[in-house]
Automatic annotation (TrEMBL), chains A, B:
<dbReference type="GO" id="GO:0000976">
    <property type="term" value="F:transcription cis-regulatory region binding"/>
</dbReference>
<dbReference type="Pfam" id="PF17932">
    <property type="entry name" value="TetR_C_24"/>
</dbReference>
<dbReference type="GO" id="GO:0003700">
    <property type="term" value="F:DNA-binding transcription factor activity"/>
</dbReference>
<dbReference type="InterPro" id="IPR001647">
    <property type="entry name" value="HTH_TetR"/>
</dbReference>
<feature type="DNA-binding region" description="H-T-H motif">
    <location>
        <begin position="31"/>
        <end position="50"/>
    </location>
</feature>
<dbReference type="Pfam" id="PF00440">
    <property type="entry name" value="TetR_N"/>
</dbReference>
<dbReference type="InterPro" id="IPR050109">
    <property type="entry name" value="HTH-type_TetR-like_transc_reg"/>
</dbReference>
<dbReference type="InterPro" id="IPR041490">
    <property type="entry name" value="KstR2_TetR_C"/>
</dbReference>
<keyword id="KW-0804">Transcription</keyword>
<dbReference type="InterPro" id="IPR036271">
    <property type="entry name" value="Tet_transcr_reg_TetR-rel_C_sf"/>
</dbReference>
<protein>
    <submittedName>
        <fullName>Transcriptional regulator, TetR family</fullName>
    </submittedName>
</protein>
<keyword id="KW-0238">DNA-binding</keyword>
<dbReference type="InterPro" id="IPR009057">
    <property type="entry name" value="Homeodomain-like_sf"/>
</dbReference>
<feature type="domain" description="HTH tetR-type">
    <location>
        <begin position="8"/>
        <end position="68"/>
    </location>
</feature>
<keyword id="KW-0805">Transcription regulation</keyword>
Length: 199, 199
């Protein structure tokens, strides 16, 4: 109890602490006791903010999902040729992942043991499905190669984007800036590593 | 003790059981008791085969690393233009990942709490470094684009390849075959999703 400080948390700042602990220990491995220690306030103070850890998980993955689904309503994702829209969604997904790094990291690690986790996985699949449809439309337009199965191409595309959570650390000295990373993802995904000369 | 069966394990078959448990529970979360239950033999029978769980981890990640480093000595990785060698290594890395799926999965999840884990991470970095050098040579030859930083390109390339462990399940009905996946990785990595018409 000596460690307890005055509870000056807002919903957002408490969420940020919880997400850090979830990412470090895993959601299953995190108890209210761990959250209380990391926040430096008592468990009953935390219960003053939320009903329990699942509510914190719900808010955290909800924030990541809102960021991702928001992209699909932006003009760049709605208007124009499918290939341009897919390019836009690829860039923005990469940007949102970096901007909301701890929240998207948590979303990608969710495994499906609770209602909230299963809901989050279902929403992730929905997002992937929306992107797969865009990819399919661009193949039908003749703008994207037809010799890679759509589901496989979508998986490899998200595999590349999502892997950024493993190494991107915005606060590290000499860290790449977001635009540089997003440019690289779009270039590799759409045009590949090769130059014309290397073909 | 009623569950114990006669110990007919070979080093390889016992390793396969251990790797499955490590991947399910995490290495840190696995005790000798868990291994004993999963194998259906007593702990002392396991100690007859190995000194402890770290030796099993060492053999498992060693098998994955032998598979990966073996690629770099194959003629396709040694002879010819850098871009062709990189293409070869990309294809073979994807194939080895699928052929040695549980072992490579474990290698990719290792986090560095023990000597063996730190050694495995160091060897992984060495492998990535060897591939990065190949990429750099191909850029110098003018065969690969110079507008994506080598370290970033290497990370995104491995991000795409390594993400396969998240979804590839060889025994699933209708599973993609290895060649189809390896072809897709090479096409996307080197030439991207776009057709000439879509440019």
């Amino acid at each position: 109890m000596t460690m307890s400080k005055r509870d000056t948390y807002t919903p957002d700042s408490l969420l940020a602490v919880a997400v850090r602990v979830f990412n470090e220990r895993g959601y299953d491995g995190t108890s209210m006791e761990h959250l209380s220690r990391a926040a430096g306030i008592s468990k009953s103070s935390i219960y003053h903010h939320v009903r329990g850890k699942e509510e914190l998980l719900n808010r955290a993955v909800g924030r990541a999902l809102d960021g991702l689904f928001g992209i699909l309503d932006e003009p760049g994702a709605v208007d124009g040729r499918a290939v341009r829209r897919l390019e836009y969604v690829t860039r923005r997904t990469t940007e949102v992942l970096m901007a909301e790094l701890p929240y998207v990291t948590l979303l990608l690690r969710v495994r499906g043991n609770t209602t909230t986790e299963r809901w989050a996985m279902e929403r992730r699949r929905e997002f992937d499905q929306r992107v797969a449809e865009l990819l399919k439309a661009a193949v039908a337009d003749g703008d994207l190669r037809a010799d890679v199965e759509v589901r496989l191409a979508t998986r490899l595309l998200f595999g590349m984007i999502n892997s950024i959570v493993e190494w991107y650390r915005p606060d590290t000295k000499g860290a790449l800036d977001r635009e540089q990373v997003a440019d690289a993802v779009v270039r590799l995904a759409f045009d590949g590593l090769r130059t014309q000369a290397g073909a």
